[in-house]
Amino acid sequence: MSVRPIIEVPNPLLKTISTPVEAVTDETRALMDDMVETMYDANGIGLAAIQVGVSQRIVVMDISPDSEAQDDKAERYDLSGLEDEGVRYFVNPEITWASEETNNYQEGCLSVPGFYDDVERPAQCRVKFLDYHGVEQEIDCDGLLATCIQHELDHLNGIVFLDRLSRLKRQMILKKIRKAERDADVA
Ligand code: QAP
Ligand code: CO
């Protein structure tokens, strides 16, 4: 297993529409293992394959309160009351149902480090996917799980959470990112 570099906004690769996985093989599992290691290393709760430059429809997630990155995550997200279900793997995830009811959640993204903002999404959804072993599953999601799976599914369709903010907020954040890039270049 190894930690891979995470691609950040405004890298145009993040706009790629990822391709369905034809079969979950040992190669797929090796990639998923690397993604989990990369996610934990960066103290994340979710990661899509395109964030490490692989345009396959794969997501890994760990929203459990006491996973490896617990302390750091606990500061950022309210994980209280969530059961420890450990790491989850979603291959070819599809939303088969989403609630009318929505909620607002302050989202972040490993590809947009240091920026967080409220995003409105359906509060509950049902997701069909293949698991680590290639077995088809369908689960009902709410709370952080529902928010996170929708955020990660967006990545598979070339969308980052900034695209769901007002134009003004998005432009402000992109401006700050470009300025930080320029400052880093001169330094
Ligand atoms: C997506 O995001 C998500 O800026 C996963 O400095 C987030 O793991 C879905 C992270 C919130 C729903 C709600 C971000 C780590 C991690 C940062 C993440 C940072 C360090 C983001
Ligand atoms: Co993200």
Describe the structure.
This protein has one domain (12-186): Alpha-Beta Complex (Peptide Deformylase). It is built from four helices and seven strands. A hairpin with a 5-residue loop joins strand 6 and strand 7 (136-142). The protein is of the alpha+beta class. The strands form two sheets. The protein has a five-stranded antiparallel β-sheet with strand order 1-2-3-6-7. The mean pLDDT is 92. It has helices at residues 26-41, 70-76, 143-156, 167-186, and strands spanning 46-48, 58-61, 88-98, 102-107, 117-122, 124-130, 136-142. The N and C termini lie far apart (33 Å). The radius of gyration is 16 Å and the shape is globular. It binds 2-phenylethyl (2E)-3-(3,4-dihydroxyphenyl)prop-2-enoate (QAP) and cobalt (II) ion. 2-phenylethyl (2E)-3-(3,4-dihydroxyphenyl)prop-2-enoate binds at residues 42-46, 105, 107-110, 113-114, 147-148, 151.
What's the short story on this structure?
This protein is an alpha+beta fold and 187 residues long.
User: Structural class of the helices, strands and pairings?
Assistant: alpha+beta
CATH superfamily: Peptide deformylase
Q: SSE string, helix = H, strand = E?
A: HEEHEEEEEHH
Helix segment count? 4
Strand residue content: 15-25%
- CATH class, named Alpha Beta
Please name the CATH topology. Answer: Peptide Deformylase
Rg over CA atoms: 16 Å
Q: What is the CATH-assigned architecture?
A: Alpha-Beta Complex
Count of discrete structural domains = 1
Overall pLDDT score:
92
Bound molecules: 2-phenylethyl (2E)-3-(3,4-dihydroxyphenyl)prop-2-enoate, cobalt (II) ion
Report the sheet with the most strands, covering strand number, pairing sense and barrel closure: 5 strands, antiparallel
What best-fitting shape do the alpha-carbon axes yield?
A: globular
Strand elements, count: 7
Low-confidence regions:
none
